[in-house]
Specification:
6 copies of one chain form a homohexamer. Mean pLDDT of chain A is about 90; it is low at about 1-15 and about 20-30. Chain A is about 45% helix and about 15% strand. The longest helix of chain A is centred in the middle third of the chain and has 24 residues, at about 115-140. By secondary structure, the first copy, chain A, is of the alpha/beta class. In chain A, the strands form 2 sheets. The first copy, chain A, has a 6-stranded mixed β-sheet, sandwiched between helices. In chain A, helix 1 runs parallel beside helix 3 (about 115-140) and helix 4 crosses helix 5 (about 190-195). Chain A has helices spanning about 65-80, 100-110, 115-140, 155-160, 190-195, 200-210, 215-220, 230-245, 250-265, 270-285, 285-295; strands at about 40-45, 50-55, 85-90, 145-150, 150-155, 165-170, 175, 215, 225-230. At the D-F interface, helix 8, helix 9, helix 10 and helix 11 of D face helix 3, helix 5 and helix 6 of F. Chains A, B, C, D, E, F: Pfam families: ECH_1.
């Protein structure tokens, strides 16, 4: 949680932690959508698919004040939207995200509040919890979230992507757990989720303790991402194709799968099995099973079935 | 749990989810054993090694009604059999398993039972729990289980292999978490165990949410299997060799290792260490330690020692 | 826990589990330090970095009686030493460690104590717990520990390195979970920590149940180590460079990161986030954040900042 | 969760589960307050004390549609209100509450929604979770909540009071876990919290399985309430006096105590201690300690200190 | 687990731990039932009620070899029996139970089995687990179990009753955690369940560490039992009346209540609520709710409703 | 943790939180023992019984600097002392304890250490953890601890007694969770342990949030103590008699009982049973069982058996 940084006098926006930033061409594919958000662009590239784009390309999609609250609104709506079965998240412009936007956050949380250290701490704790919520909503949303990363994914960006379900990246992508570089332990999700999404604890520790960059190949071999694409265009196409595969399957099956995968992460196998049985005792009672099985028998794709909304 | 599928009219056995099945030659190596089972063939290829073969090659080892209960009987016996120190599981015929056998299961569980939805759910929950048990017995059996997979490993097959301890496969093997394709969340173990046996959560989610196939190379690089063999013959030989290595060591050491590895998976490190200390306070008091240490001093393999049965 | 081995008559030191041992040249880089320890050499190769060397090269750094207690003293002191921000652990001489030193341990724990089996077990439990503590102190120490492994890392060596935070090795390194070879389940940490530091459970089980050696390449691809170096010299240089990166960052950030990474390993994501918020509500109130952010704005490395001691 | 009841034709409001209801005189002490709520009356009987009154006396404070959402709004505001340090909850009129208001709820949730059983279940789960939230907000509010119960406390009333911190009642109070009487297992908190607030599990089970009434004396001897008063008037006076004692102490101390008591309920002692240490490392840094200690030295009550708001 | 006692030469049955035993008149109310058991008598005193009587009055219902296995069979059948909605357990003859029957057990488990201490321990562990199961089946049975205790309830008797849901006793009942008196820590449930059924930990510890007797009054005030009756006859009548109350309510509601009460005991409130929501999303879809609510509206008892079997 | 209080100018020792203190006659029964401690008196009133007396009667046994460390040393020694099987703790002089000694602690921890708030917090956390240890050693000591309380038991006194196993008090005893009165949440055990030793959560919350006194009768009815004695003399006699009962039983049985009771408190029933089975698989292999059973058969007390030391 970076809010306290704002105490330092920050005088000029200079691209944050990115080595250089040149001209950034706004090329958001969703520029024509009438988004209610200023930091996000929402579009519907195909049936049942919602595309959420980090959309401040001129600021390298740095996470400003608006972003932290709009994400909560956005994913709360997605969770309730029966027309959405899967979400794709990506970044507009040159990079996925440069992480937190120090300039913008400063104007909001300029001074620590509280009459003594205990009260300042009390308020900080509430603020941290609020920021954690920005990414936890992704996890609580029962619709799968595919995130497609290109260029830089720094600081808060890693917090964001580890809360998503499937991670894809371009060959030029790089990842950086930046927080120790600015004097703090990452507190909105990276330290909790990164070790649970990749298999090498030595690598997790190295990344978090040294803030070194990790590039696409290592991201793939370590399992952080499950696919690497040559460039952003093919990646977005690949992400949408994958999203289409998911959207074409029974929403009862798909969302139940997500809910139980997350439950299982945080419980023993025995507890996960028990929960699963209590879940499916009702969720098996769906016409989707019959329709899907029928399609399977007929050698058709489940995508040929018109499932009821959920 | 697929039992509810049977409500749909399934009229003809056509290989389930396998693209094509041509002629399947029954070539089970255990065809001469007098197995008490109809879906499994049991043999003893070497001292202290039990070989459990999925043995309905003409049906692609599809998991029929007999299978779900025979597995429980079989592994309960193995757990109690002092002559068995390690188990190898493989599939007879062309593939490891095509997953659940819809035809056969249909005849058994044709109608959901219960006077209202709550009662149907109640009964479904008991059925799911019973099917979960079919694979949990593998985990509870203190003897290590090496599974050797060739060709297809679909649906229930993934539930099965993730409950085993060591996974090997052939170059032509492929794996598919099939459940979302037929409208349900996998409920007999895959969602609970797969994330705990491989390191990439993005990959786990992709497999479970899209039902795409994973081939041998990715299975190896992701850690699902720890070895890939060129063909079934060399794999079975390799599996038996590995089983021989395990069978040749102290059963007190080997089975205690399995029990504690599984305990540790579901507990914190501190709790795992505490349990381990309470375990070994008695298990160290075995002649096996002296005999093994003696062999080690004399540069002999532990396999040269004749350990007492356990 | 190997203490009971001593009941067997062990008559001659012959290199333990290493295939051959030839002449071992003592080449400890810390030979000039006036260490208070007989099994460890302590040096300070750079500011804020403590180098702990397993230092009985003529015995292949076998873990003798002194080692098991000196480690506790050593890491307790390091934990309290404000001049230390990061630790490097390596082995003097030809190999990292041959594991437990049966000869030396024998003289200490010659007879199991206790008037009946229950009392012997009671005492064994206390002994095991004491030995577990030897490696748990590494984990409890809030300063990151980088371990650099060359040559053999056998038995107790695997217990040791899995309790460290970052693992590096040379191309000639090999690892062996040796315990089943001498008739016991590993009880001082390997079975608890190895599955949590690498992503392939099949591999973990194979290593622990067969005691086969794993070489550097597999250690890297499985994630046990995060980097492989061509030889010991470059590895030590690499380890010190990495340690320098860590030491150059805010100790509040770095140590808070380690504490929370370990906490998260043993808790659900939700619990980890809650703990993190309670942690950072005070830890964000540090001048390190401002100093680090300032350096970041000025495109300077955090290493340019002189952080207060912790 | 009772929403499904509404499927049954409910034709006339007849006092729900109360044996008889005669004339109910509205005697809410907060009748003059300009409450933004229709089911609750909010007043401030003394400094730093908020009084929340269930305020539909003519309906025996039955929990209607408005109530379930107003409670969330009300306690969310209280949690943020620096002028509130403690809350008193009571019921206006003749009884504390008759439980859920079937009539009013029916108009809202008349039909189960969803195209098949799975979808209906999915929606029911969300509804249950939402209703659970109505009482969980009480627990999450860091300000202590004293509940004062007179007359009947039925069904949802027990869910409510077990989420409060301190329970007081009148001699004529009675409690009833009513849910089994209408064909369901209590699902908004009673089954989870009642066993953790009283010590006799046999009694908990008896109450929940038979729906028998428990009167004030047994409520006191079983520990459900910690004090019994002769009548409502003296109870409200007693509740306010107790609230005054709490409000007069350091809010940092009081609210930290509540937070950690709830944390401890759900964790082991070791985990509770660890969390406590991480909490107090900042919360001890308050002027309240010095001010309170000073008062203590001077034999003054902490109530004489003017603590900063929190 | 007392099996090892049999090593001691036990030469004569002398009433175990009971001070004197005089003539015991067999007065089992179920003497006319054709029970398949030798240690238990099963009867059906009223519709949907199963009465399980410890039925070796001439041996003070000491728990012999048959008892330990018959309990498992008996409760497994009860769990599956749709005609049973509630169970009453009591003891035939003069006392509830004198605890384990040393004489009979001796003939079965005369010698510890195993070639060394580790193997003996291994077998003991399996035996203990098997005996634990004898009482855990009571807990796993979803039908509520009311236990009615008169006279002595010693050793294994306390293990048994703490696994039941509701405990009643006569004025002459007494309870004794006997195990420390014979040199062992109680290992079939008392140490795990007693602290969770009564509220005073000091009392639990005193009972378990000193083996002192506790009489009816203290059993009531401590919450071990929820009702005390003057004599056995009135107690049995009271137990049956209470069982009738439970049997007359919706089995979906009643059994769901038991399942969730036990789940909640072993989980945090948040986890219990989550499980409850997943449970009731299907269990609310029952005609029992409508029927029960209708009866409630009409001021009828739920016992007037004819619920479908479960 | 009260260390920060010392920042306030404390000028005169005036009896802390006790209303008045008059003349305190030193009447420690252990005055003749040559204790190595200044705050504690150690004696051995009977075989296998260790009596630990809080022994600064002139200071009302206020917990000074020496106390906090001597307790750790004392109980560490007791845990290892084979001649001790049970411990009695009481207070010399007029009261049990007045709680923390502000005067003495002030001289030790006068200033918070650390260059910024984060560093001060870091150090405070270590200090709190150290103080928590003072009482956790009581719990970790496998020998049962009986505490006998007379007069006042304030603040730290409640932390102390809730970590003991059995609590006795005199009719004039009173208890006070004092911490909120001095501006902090109790952080060395009360908030974690008090709710787990008494059954009424409403009472726990009331005591902790209002700091009101609780007298002997309520302590008994709430289960905090399991026996009340008319005066200190009879209480000490009663405590020693109870200690004698415990000391006269098998130490393997008694200490295994304590270890497992504490384990069970913090785990589910299923986990407690599993741990118990792993514990007793060795602990049943003791001659104590045979000796105890023999005595039982012969109608002798277990106290007649001469058990081996543990």
């Amino acid at each position: 949680m970076l809010s306290v940084i704002v105490r330092s006098a920050v005088t000029k926006y200079r691209g944050l932690w990115l080595p250089g930033q040149a001209a950034v061409r706004a090329m958001s594919s969703s520029s024509s959508s009438s988004s209610p958000y200023t930091s996000l662009a929402i579009s519907h590239p195909a049936e049942s698919i919602t595309h959420v784009e980090l959309n401040r390309p001129e600021k390298l999609n740095a996470m400003n004040k608006a972003f932290w609250s709009e994400m909560v609104t956005c994913f709360t709506e997605i969770a309730e939207d029966p027309n959405c079965r899967v979400v794709v998240v990506s970044g507009a412009g040159r990079v996925f995200t440069a992480g937190i936007d120090l300039m913008d956050m400063a104007s909001d949380v300029l001074q620590p509040r509280g009459d003594d250290m205990a009260r300042i701490s009390w308020n900080l704790r509430k603020t941290i919890a609020k920021y954690q919520e920005t990414f936890s909503v992704i996890e609580r949303c029962p619709k799968p979230v595919v995130v497609a990363i290109h260029g830089a994914c720094v600081g808060g960006g890693v917090d964001l992507i580890t809360a998503c379900d499937i991670r894809l990246c371009t060959q030029d992508a790089w990842f950086q757990v930046k927080e120790v570089d600015i004097g703090l332990a990452a507190d909105v999700g990276t330290l909790q989720r990164l070790p649970k999404v990749i298999g090498s604890r030595s690598l997790v520790n190295e990344l978090a303790l040294t803030a070194r960059k990790m590039y696409a190949d290592e991201a793939k071999s370590s399992g952080l991402v499950s696919r690497v694409f040559p460039d952003k265009e093919t990646m977005i196409a690949g992400a949408l194709e994958m999203a289409g595969e998911i959207a074409g399957r029974s929403p009862v099956a798909v969302q139940g799968t997500k809910v139980n995968l997350i439950y299982s992460r945080d419980h023993s196998v025995a507890e996960g099995l028990d929960y699963m049985a209590s879940w499916n005792m009702s969720m098996l009672q769906t016409q989707d099973v019959m329709q899907s099985a029928q399609a399977s028998m007929e050698k058709k794709s489940p995508k040929s079935v018109a499932f009821s909304k959920l």
